[in-house]
Structures are given as structure tokens and as C-alpha cells.
Write a structure and sequence with these properties.
Length: 197
């Protein structure tokens, strides 16, 4: 079992990336929540991983935080949920926001995530209710404040909903420039960049 990788980033093409470790290039898939925090190609990074062995493939998934990996593993135990939907969910909503959705049985927030339909959202809420520990995003007895997804994640979801492929949406958001921007500003800049292309 491969639990983590530390090495240099060889390539980044969301959702795929390659990490060079001791002369070996490991291909991984990662959610956008992890991609937004990756350093540039050639820089060193450490990612937690989840290794999946199937009849036709061996797949490696990378995560920036233990909370992301724990949620991904819990999602895979839900009937009908595979790694693709798990990555889509983590790309469109934070771990904390997902925990609050489950706690409040909020179907509407989940179906806003690209790739998650009403039936899938309802199944997730039912099956994840008992699987999320109180520490997963919401402390027991804590005052519930609705956390917001990062502006980058919201803008990414909006661009995908507009019909852009995930890799294209990521490229447009990077072209929007560094700095802290609101979701609306990121979308506006990304669309301006697309118009210039």
C-alpha cells in the first residue's frame, strides 16, 4: 500500500499529475481542492495517497490533507460511488461543507456540484449520516456556521457548469492571475481570458 509520496512535480494536467520520486514517476489523480494548493512543476510536494487495484488498472489518488483522504475513502464505501464521483465531490465542495450538508440533510447544496445528481445526493446523505465522525468538519456541540467553498472551487464549478472541460477551467482560472479574488471576479477574469484565446 502506498500511503504518501514526497517528490518533485513532473507534470500537472488536472485531474492528473506526475510526481517524480527517486527516478520513478508516479501518476496520480487529485481533486481540484488539492490542485489549487500545488506548487509549480519542478517544485517538491508531499501528498497523501489512496491506492486502488482493479482488474483492469492500478490507480493512485493524491490528497493535500488527511481530511480529504478520509472523506474520499468514506465515499468509496457508499454503493454506486466510485473514485470519479469522489474526486468530483471533493473538487466542488470542502470537507467541512460536506459534513454540514450531511448533518442538515441538504440535498440542494450537493446537487450544485458538477456530476452529482439528485438520486446520488440523496444516497450520499443517507449512507454518510452515520459514517461521518463529529470531528469531520463539525465539532460536537459547536455552533454551526455554514462554511463557504473557496472562491477558486466555486469558480471552477461554475466554469464546468458552463460547459468548459475541467482542464480548460483550471487553465482559465490560472490565467485569471494571482491574488485574492471573489468568485465573481475569478469567473469574469476567466471568461475574459477565454474570449482573448
Amino acid at each position: 500500500m502506498i500511503g504518501s509520496l514526497r517528490g518533485r512535480i513532473g507534470s500537472k494536467t488536472p485531474p492528473q499529475l506526475t510526481i517524480e520520486v527517486g527516478g520513478v514517476g508516479y501518476e496520480l489523480e487529485a481533486p481540484m481542492s488539492t490542485f489549487f494548493h500545488l506548487p509549480a512543476v519542478g517544485e517538491e510536494v508531499k501528498l497523501l495517497t489512496h491506492f486502488v487495484v482493479r482488474e483492469d488498472a492500478q490507480l493512485l489518488y493524491g490528497f493535500a490533507t488527511e481530511d480529504e483522504r478520509r472523506l474520499f475513502r468514506s465515499l468509496l464505501k457508499v454503493s454506486g460511488i466510485g473514485p470519479k464521483i469522489g474526486l468530483a465531490l471533493l473538487s466542488g465542495i470542502s470537507v467541512e461543507a460536506f459534513a454540514l450538508c450531511v448533518q442538515s440533510q441538504d440535498v440542494a447544496s450537493l446537487i450544485r456540484v458538477p456530476g452529482i445528481g439528485r438520486k446520488t445526493a440523496e444516497r450520499l446523505l443517507v449512507e454518510m449520516r452515520d459514517r461521518l465522525a463529529p470531528t469531520d468538519g463539525v465539532a460536537a456541540g459547536a455552533v454551526m456556521v455554514q462554511p463557504e467553498a473557496s472562491p477558486e472551487a466555486e469558480a471552477f464549478g461554475a466554469l464546468v457548469a458552463l460547459g468548459y472541460r475541467p482542464a480548460e477551467a483550471t487553465r482559465l482560472l490560472k490565467a485569471a492571475g494571482p491574488g485574492t479574488h471573489s468568485t465573481e471576479e475569478l469567473i469574469r477574469r476567466a471568461l475574459q481570458s477565454a474570449a482573448r484565446d
